[in-house]
Amino acid sequence: MPLTDLPLEELREFRPPITEPDDFDAFWRATLAEARAAGGGRAELSRVDGPINRLVVEDLTFPGFGGDPVKGWVVRPESDAPLPTVIELVGYNGGRGLPAERLHWAASGYVHVVMDTRGQGSGWGNGGDTADPHGSGPAVPGFMTRGIERPEDYYYRRVYTDAVRLLDAVAEMPFVDRDRIALTGASQGGGIALATAGLVGERVRAVMPDVPFLCHFQRSVLLTPDQPFMEITRYLAVHRGSEEDVFRTLSYFDGAAFATRAAAPAFFSVALMDGIVLPSSVFAAFNRYASPDREIAVYTFNGHEGGQLHHWQRQAAWLGARLLPGNG
C-alpha cells in the first residue's frame, strides 16, 4: 500500500485551522455535570473465576452518560498498596471482549481497566455487553452518523462522557493510585482517550493515543478513502444541504480540539500507509497538543495496524519512566 497522505516533513509542520464553537467548553461542562447529576449508583465489581489465576479479574459495571450502566473489565495484580492504572478504550465496533485478550498491562504491574463501548462490540473480537438505550434520527449503518444533526444528540457525546465517568469511578477504587492513572487506546480508542484527556486535564498523568481516530473531521471526511469516515460522506450524499449542521456537530467532538486542552504527557503513534486514519489527522492533533512532554512514534510502512505489540513495548517503557518507581 502506498503512502496515504503528506510527506513526513510536511506532516511534522501540519497545523491546520480547526473549527471550535464558541461554547465548546460550556457544552462539555454542562454535559458532564448532567451525567454526574443523573446518578446511576456506584461502580460495582464482581470477581470472576476462570483460567487466569495469577491475576485478579473483576467484572465492572459503572454509571455512564445518563446514569446508563456501562460494562468493563478490571485485571490487576494482587497488592496491598494502590497501583498505577491504565484505562484502555476500544477500537471501532469492538467490545470489551474477554479478560484474557489483554493481560500485558496487568502482567507489567498495573491495574488495567477496559471500557466497553456502548452499542458496539459486534464487528470484531469477542463481543461487547453494553447497550446504548438512546435513539437517533436517520443514520447510515454504523455509529458515525447517529444523532449527527445536533451535538446534544450525537453518539460520541455519550461515549466520551462514559469515559470520563469511568475515570471518576476508577479514581475511587481502593487498589488504584489516583495520582498515577493513564489513558490509552488504538484507533477509536485513541480518539476517545484523547478527548478524555482534554476533558479531565491534570486528573490523568499520561495519555497514549495509538493511531487515533476522530481527529480533524473536516479533512478526514473529505479525503479518507476507507470506512468509517465514509459513513459521514454517504450521509451527506443523501442528506444534501445538511453539511453545515453536520460539521457544526462534529466540531464539538474533534480530537484536535481536545488536544489543545490536554495537560498530561502524551505518546502518540501514526502509520503513514493508513487509509482508515489519515496521518495528517493524527498530526493535526499531535501538533496542537498542549503538553510540551509529547512524543510520536512513526510507522512508515504500516497501515492502520500501526506498531502492534512492538508499539506496546515502546508504550510500556515510556509509561514506566513516568509512573513506576525507580524507572524515572
TrEMBL record:
Gene3D superfamilies: alpha/beta hydrolase. This is Acetylxylan esterase. Coiled coil: none annotated. It comes from the Bacteria. Signal peptide: none annotated. Residues 1-319 form the Acetyl xylan esterase domain. InterPro entries: AB_hydrolase_fold, AXE1_dom, CE7.
